[in-house]
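cron nightly-structures :: item 1 of 1
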Amino acid sequence: MARLTFNFSFKPIITVMLALVIAIAAPTALSAASMEISASLKTAWDKMIEKADSTTKVKLNVLYNDFTTLQQQEQSIDEQIKTNHYANEQAELALRKQIKLIDAAKIQQLEKDVTAIRERYKPLFASYAALNQQITAARLLKDKDLNALLRSQADLMKIAVQLARQEIKTKEAALKAAKAQVAQKTKVIRAALAEADPLQIEIRAQKSAISATKKRASASWTSFTQAVRKAEASTTLGSFSSVVSDYRMINTQKQNVLTLEKRVNDKIVKAKKLL
């Protein structure tokens, strides 16, 4: 039997998959470790500090302390943003579910009432329709006595039919009014929720600004690490000053995001009170 041979290699697929994994993971890795002082960098830093003049040494140490403080602040702000953002998402989801349930039981009962009243009077309406058909037939037969008898019965039944129709109309009006009330209430609550939309736009703008600042800081950080490893104290001072300045800006921008997330929460709370 001839053996079939497949010239197929998994290498291209594996290469593509690895590229995708790296592409997906890269932003996270950069954001988490793009400005971290490693053990080797700290060793180079200490050696550079020992050789630096007293004035430069003081300035560099101040910057180093500022840098570590800013890192701690960023971590705290990030945690708060994450907590507030998640809480806002859950609160909004819960509120939107509650909106759909506004007076749901009441509407359901009114719908049942309308259905029940219509079913109750179906036989009456059917009898009334049949009686009118009989009147038409009697008229064609020119039977005056039968026609008079049937008309008398129809007149009596007409009152009951009118009362039944009015009762149905009342039930239908109650259902319509209840639905209109729910629609209006829903509109008001959703309008209150929509007040958070401009804040979400501001949040996205702040995040975009953060990305731009991080990109600038990353370039300064590269210059900083190179200068440290070369023990160039004065170059390090300039690049590290830029890093710290950008880092401070990043924290300010992130604080703005946190403030906006809290304002979003205020809008959700306000909308919820309208339930």
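cron nightly-structures :: done
The chain has two domains: 40-102+192-272, 104-181.
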